[in-house]
Amino acid sequence: KIYLFVLSFILFSCSSKKNEEYEILQVSLIESEMAITDLFKDFEVIPLETTDNSLLIWPDKVMCIDDNYAVFDSRHPAVFLFDAGGQFIRKIGNRGEGPHDYYEIYDVLYNPIDKTIEMLSPFGDIVSYTLEGNWVRKIKFPQKTNYQSFVLNDSSYVAWSVPSNMNDYGISIISQDGSMLINSLWQCNPNLSLLYPRVFYQHKDEVYFYRPFGREVYKISDNGMGIAYEWDFGKNNYTLGKWDIDLYKISDENENQLIMNLLREGHIPYVFSKQNQSESYYYANLVFGFTPSGNRHLFFDKRNGKTFFFNKTNEGINFFPLYMGNDFILIKIDTPQIPFLREIISEIDYETIANRVEDDNPIILKCYYK
Length: 370
Description:
Layout: E1 2-11, E2 16-26, E3 40-47, E4 59-65, E5 68-73, E6 78-82, E7 88-92, E8 107-111, E9 116-120, E10 125-130, E11 135-140, E12 147-152, E13 156-161, E14 171-175, E15 181-185, E16 200-203, E17 206-209, E18 216-221, E19 224-232, H1 255-264, E20 270-277, E21 281-288, E22 295-301, E23 307-310, E24 321-324, E25 328-333, H2 347-353, E26 363-369
Parallel strand pairs: 2-19
Antiparallel strand pairs: 1-2, 3-26, 4-5, 5-6, 6-7, 8-9, 9-10, 10-11, 12-13, 13-14, 14-15, 16-17, 17-18, 18-19, 20-21, 21-22, 22-23, 24-25, 25-26
């Protein structure tokens, strides 16, 4: 069920308190059997073409641009553009030492106004390319320790960097030409900022922010931030104070190692690695035991409060979401997972992918919500 509460929250940009109304999403973390057809009504397979120029190592983000798919590979930092059927078009961006190259890229976005792909380096450089692969410009964000991820709203960039100390801010709101720091938000214990650098998502042109150890999801504007909604797992809620870990300051020099040990040994039961929402669903990815096998997916239906909490679908499909939109979600299907698709796609579609080998690029499965 969704309950509306009026509570005080901390506005991190100026440490003032304000009454705000937000949703509490009550969920039981008990796994249930779930067929993929319980969530989705239709499926489309997009086999990404494998060539010497398009070989993907670790694709972990997709941008839908018109009828094309722009795939970001974080291990081979570049964007690979494929058409609606998965045919490779071109690679965008190049690691190198030339004037139009970059050394490292941690995140990318599509700028719909300029129609450019923008890439963020940890040093705060934003390198822009056209969809044809031509270099456009480079801008420089204000100096920070280590930029990790960013989004673009109507008026500014919102960027995340790992705070260097307890007085530093994790969120920077920056003008679109990169020249001016508009606002700084989120002072916290730096030891709690090292996991999962993708901290933002966008929905209805709003920017949302979340962290691994917090059940709250915040909405960000140029003027500040406030809680948008909060997960409530009942008896499965926890607070880090149980282990004498403070949210805002470092307890001692061994605290980071303590946190990692608590995660590996399962004392901290779960963390949030990814969150998002569509018109119909809230989504969260929880990691239990700090291992890949501990992945659990949580969908909360906004229309009726029904929840789906699972590791794999009944068909055996592992979820690896690359994109979440209002009408569909894109998940990555590696070659060993192909047989599990036979029950949900047409025989003709299955025949087009049945002979793919392990070294081929993954398939994108486009799943349309019910």
